[in-house]
Design a protein that fits this description.
Blueprint lengths: L1 E4 L9 H8 L5 H9 L3 E3 L2 E2 L11 E4 L16 H4 L8 E4 L3 E6 L24 H11 L14 E2 L8 E7 L2 H12 L3 E10 L5 E11 L4 E5 L7 E13 L4 E8 L6 H8 L14 H5 L7 E8 L17 E3 L16 H5 L2
Parallel strand pairs: 8-14
Antiparallel strand pairs: 1-4, 2-3, 2-4, 5-6, 6-8, 7-8, 9-13, 9-14, 10-11, 10-12, 12-13, 14-15
């Protein structure tokens, strides 16, 4: 028999979800059978698969030990975390969330097993591993104390795109941040360098269809089967006449795969270094073999405190990366601090 006490990060989820995370190799059919046969108890009483767990609840599992292999529940090992390779650059941090400036070339994570687009590389070289190690070193995350939670990313950006990635330190913050992102209460602003001259500002609309086999997208002016509408806003900041490049601030109203890269290429202004949606042989000669795109600023709308983590302190604030980390800004010598503050 195994007994678990539900902590703050385990609270707020269904019993069956919790059980699937703190066991290994247990078929769902057998899990539900054990619940029906009263071999799973919550606070000493009969349990149901849909029971919502609360902090402090005691869960007793009268099931074979084979479903509890040594180390299950420690999503990351403390010893392995001490050997992390990537060093994170922190933009902002409090007890609930962390904003990190990801360097271009760093993977946020490897992806799921069986995913055709799963990235190649070492997990220890990913951003999520580095951030988990960072929190473990500070004592804010103790793997051995968690059954079903590990620090988690709330947004993701491409390997060769740099910029702000949001990490939730606890389950409550993760739920609230993910909900805010779904409700468009998190505003992310990008800067990019595009070919050709753009002036003023505009709101672009088109249709976006993703090919999951190739991890590419197609943009069309009219709706086609399987496509979703996208909305991209840009504002021209500076122009380099020698290179015929425009520096743009971009806001995503919708957030689809490769949206900025594909949408700007669709209107005839591909990003400098773009390799998927434009030819970039000339860009490579200039030293730009990947897209000149950076997630430079983020702001939040949390007008009321949610249950658990209080994120209202973020409301109305704008967090920006250090412009010195955005390498392609050097192509625009007239770029000013006022431009950056306008993001």
């Amino acid at each position: 028999m195994k007994t678990f006490t539900v902590n703050a990060n385990d609270a707020g989820q269904r019993l069956d979800k919790f059980l699937s995370k703190c066991t290994e190799g247990l078929p769902k059919s057998l899990l539900y059978k054990y619940i029906r046969k009263k071999r799973v108890k919550v606070n000493g009483g009969r349990a149901h698969e849909g029971d919502m767990l609360r902090e402090g609840d005691t869960v007793e599992l009268w099931i074979p030990d084979e479903f509890f292999p040594e180390g299950k529940g420690t999503v990351y090992g403390a010893e392995a975390l001490s050997r992390v390779k990537v060093k994170p650059s922190i933009v902002y941090e409090d007890e609930n969330i962390l904003l990190c400036d990801k360097k271009p070339g760093v993977l946020v994570h490897l992806g799921d097993e069986g995913d055709k687009n799963r990235a190649e590389g070492s997990e220890r070289e990913t951003l999520i591993y580095a951030l988990t190690a960072y929190l473990a070193a500070k004592g804010e995350y103790v793997p051995e104390n968690e059954r079903s939670f590990a620090p988690a990313l709330c947004n993701r950006i491409d390997r060769n795109t740099g910029g702000i990635v949001i990490l939730a330190k606890n389950a409550s913050a993760l739920r609230q941040m993910n909900e805010a992102i779904r409700e468009n209460r998190v505003s992310k602003r990008y800067v990019c360098a595009v070919h050709g001259r753009l002036r003023g500002e505009a709101e672009l609309r088109a249709w976006h269809a993703k090919d999951y086999r190739t991890n590419t997208v197609k943009i069309t002016a009219e709706k086609v089967p399987g496509s979703k509408e996208i909305v991209t806003r840009y504002r021209a900041l500076r122009y380099n006449p020698e290179r015929d490049l425009t520096l743009c601030a971009v806001t995503l109203v919708t957030g689809r795969t490769h949206q900025i890269r594909a949408h700007m290429a669709f209107i005839g202004h591909p990003l400098l270094g773009e390799g998927k949606y434009a030819q970039n042989a000339g860009d490579r000669k200039m030293g730009y073999s990947s897209q000149a795109l950076y997630s430079a600023a983020v702001s939040f709308d949390f007008p009321e405190a949610g249950e658990g983590a209080d994120l209202t302190g973020l409301c109305g604030r704008v967090f920006r990366v250090d412009p010195g980390n955005v390498e392609f800004l050097r192509l625009f010598p007239d770029f000013s601090p006022e431009d950056w503050e306008s993001l």
